[in-house]
Structure formats: C-alpha cells, structure tokens
C-alpha cells in the first residue's frame, strides 16, 4: 500500500482481495475472518462512500445473485489465533517484498491528513521565520487554545492578552492619541511590561501566584491567577 493509505483502506483492500480469491476459487460458501472491527461494521452501511467499500458491497451482491454466500466474521484479536498469526507474518513478508503489487489508487479521504500535515508544516515554518511575529513567544507550536468551559468574559481577556492588544495598551490608536507609558518606569505600556517586567506590580504578582513565564501565564490553566492579578492592580476593566 502507498504510505499515504489509511489503515482502514488497507483493511478494506484485504477484504476485497479475499472476496476476489473466493470468486476465483468458485467457492459456494466462504467465511472471511478479519480483526478489523471498523471494516466489518462498515459493510453494514447502506450507502457507503468509500470506493473500496462500494466495490465490496457490489461484489457481495453479485455473489448472492449467483447463489454464493460469503460471511464476514470479526475476530477480536489476532493474538493466539494460529491462522491469523500466519496471515500477519505473510502480510509483513509481502510488505517487505519489492516485487509485491502496489495499489496506486487510494480514496481522496486518505489524502486529507497528508495535505493537512503538509499545510501545517508550511505554516509552522513561516510562523518561526517571521521576524515580526509577536505571537511566536506565546504560541510557538500553533496549538489552538483550549478554553475548557471558561466564561466568555475570561476568554476575551485571555485572547486580548495573548495577542497583546488590550484597551489599556492600544486604545490610543483609536483615539489618535499618544501611546500610554508606565507611570513608574516611563516606558511604553505593553502586556509584557504589565505581566512580567514592571517592578510596581511585583508584590501583586507574588500574591496572586502568577508564573514567571509569559507563555505559562497566558494559558487557560492560569486564568484564575491572571484575573486575580489584574484585579489586584485594578486594570481588569481595561483589558
Ligand atoms: Zn513599569
């Protein structure tokens, strides 16, 4: 099988080949044993979309018209069943055989994860190469944020802080005003300064148990500590 082929497609292909063998042998009654639960269940689908499954159902229908019968039996595990272990060994030998026939057609659904991984790798590459990417520090692996039942208000707070765009630090752009500065340090006010650097908030950081790493602070797991800190320094409403 091509490397892009899913396990499910491979299992269906094996069943289709077994049906073909039974047809060639002109057997009246056959039993096919499979340890693939998904394949044996999917045979029951009335309108399958998978092309190999469609083919299997057509073959079974035609055999029934000829008075032949094929039973598909699911066996829970191949361990300890001599016939199935032999089949497993044969499958491994066939996969290592360079002269083995390789199926060239696989359903488009098998290509979806391949395409997804390809696009994600390009995205990941660009994400890391972009010199002006302010979000790289917060989310280097491009993982989606799992809010886990967090209330809407806290989701908004966390997202604004993660993107670095808050009312406090960016409202001046809408008001065409000058950027706000920290009253203590006289540096431009940004999320990094508030959460990590400004010495004025050191006591409140400790009191609220805020971690010392920006990425860790801005995870959903630390939302309660974060909100406590923002309340302590009286800027929760300005996020
Ligand atoms: Zn400061």
Describe this entry's structure for a reader.
The chain is elongated. Helices cover 52% and strands 5% of the residues. The chain has helices spanning 7-24, 37-42, 51-65, 82-96, 108-129, 152-163, 167-174, 191-197, 202-208, 214-217, 223-232; strands spanning 29-34, 69-74. It has eleven helices and two strands; from the N terminus they run H-E-H-H-E-H-H-H-H-H-H-H-H. The protein folds into two domains: 7-109, Ribonuclease H-like superfamily/Ribonuclease H (Nucleotidyltransferase, domain 5), CATH 3.30.420.10; 152-238, no CATH class. The model has no long low-confidence stretch (mean pLDDT 91). The two termini are 54 Å apart. Helix 1 (7-24) packs parallel to helix 3 (51-65) and helix 9 runs antiparallel to helix 11. It is mostly helical and 239 residues long. Zinc ion binds at residues 182, 184-185, 193, 198, 200. The site of zinc ion has 6 residues, from loops.
